[in-house]
User: What shape does this take?
Amino acid sequence: MPSDNAPFDVAVVGSGVVGLTAALGCAQQGMRVVLVGPAPRPWVATPDLPFDPRVYALAPSSVDLLDSVRAWPQIDRQREQAITRMEVFADAGGSICFSAFEAGVERLATIVEEGELLRILWLACGFAPTLVHLGATFEAVTAGAESAMLRLSGGHTVSARLLLGADGRNSAVRAACGFNTTEKPHGQTALVGNFTCEQPHRGVAYQWFSAEGVLALLPLPGDHVSLVWSAPEALAKDLLALSAEHFADRIGARTGMRLGRLGRLGGVHAFALSDLRIDRIVQPRVALLGDCAHVVHPLAGQGLNLGLQDVSKLLEVLAARETWRDPGDYVLLRRHERARAEPVGMMRSTVNSLARLFASSDPVLARLRNVGMSLVGSIAPLKSALVRRAMG
Assistant: This one.
């Protein structure tokens, strides 16, 4: 462990995907970085649990960022799955389809398990000579004119010119710094699990909108899929009480048996959904990233992509800074904040509007949302614009 009060350029609190990526990116710009948080636990596949239950659909821009920090080349190609097509269905016949071929790209997104992302990022951290890892727990911070002083468990302290909070939606950094936060429950629970499928998915991601929430089946390697069902709380409670066989049958009924019979792999995990808004994402010497800075509805699967875009923009701002500015200069942090306001705001507005639209039982709205979805699918320029935005 470095000596107390050793001067670092950047301190990153949080050893998840966003925190590790930020730490790597800063270190590869030549900055001295301290990463605070536990080392990621390795995910070990077993015959009964071949996949990590938490998977992400990475946009091409996110893959580019992971490649730029020298982590992506280490990915196990047997554990990634390209999405080449996406089919979305409304509750009364409306539908829209996006394909990589129409967009002129190889894939729309790449499915990767969280455990595999953590593995490759942690491996890359081991080759970053200016990056130091402290397994201690963050406890408090005092931001001064020249640096932020972090108090860690065990009585240790470290100072850094810039503190990056990347410790998730229940961020200790955000709380310690007194950022103003508003949380609004969606009244839904996300159910997440992995399944075998009787029919091959062929790299297609499916999504169904209805009064029962938003159900997505994402392709995994082989004949496997990942379920993400954002269901009303009462329905989620009933679904969790079902046996594995009956739960799979409910999915099959809801999806019209699109992939044949499903077989559950392991348990189903449940997460309460809410909208988390932070008035400001920077303070003098402090910036928030990822779920620490914003949490949006998962129906678009863009949560991690937004966090990685936070990292990408911050790295861009830091790389272009004037020679007399240190990494924690408030002028730089405000540049980052302004650059992220519009993309995050647009994503939040889009997903929240869709969630409200399909939660409504109004028959007029029901007809409009189905007609609207099919109409968008028939207008090539508009559909192409949506694909480009989703790809980052």
Remarks:
- The chain has one domain: 7-390.
